[in-house]
Amino acid sequence: MKYTTSKKIDKKVNEYIEKIKNVIVGELNPISIILIGGFGRGEGSFYKNEPFNDFDLYIIADKKISSKRLEEVGNLASSKIGKGGFEFMENSFEAYDKKKHFHVDIRCIELKKLGKMMKTTRTFEIKNGSSVIYGKDLRPKIKITEKDLPIAEGFRHMINKSCHLLLGMDSKRFNGHFIKDEKNMTIYWAIKTILA
Fold it and tell me: What does the pLDDT read at residue 91?
């Protein structure tokens, strides 16, 4: 499977994905696990031979799983790959650390709701810009095409990335004073904003 533009990094990502998959299957027993975001599209970010920022996953399950439980399992999966599990956007006033702030983000879709998902860029990405890493490929049950996306979704997607960039730019960072890995984080979000 291709996660990035580097075969070397893909090997490491695959090792991480296997560990994450084992945690999720053992803890949540999903029908399917779908990797989305850059790594799911085969264009994941990395820096100095390490994946950068997060792994975004959706699990398909028979019934709803609480956000609290998903976060607990995400933190456990993060620790299994030697990462801190903190999301920077929720801790944006502390110094960004690429190891501490790398996290496994897990969300859940109930099987019965696959065909009724909202017409959003996220739904479109789950169906068309992702990789199934475990279980059945249920993406064909998702009903969405490019024509279903309202123009407002493109605007929302762009604003979302811009807001992430702004959250990371307090007055200290805005004036060029970066600690630890903050400069790389800022470059990462600037690129994501431009691409959006």
Answer: 62
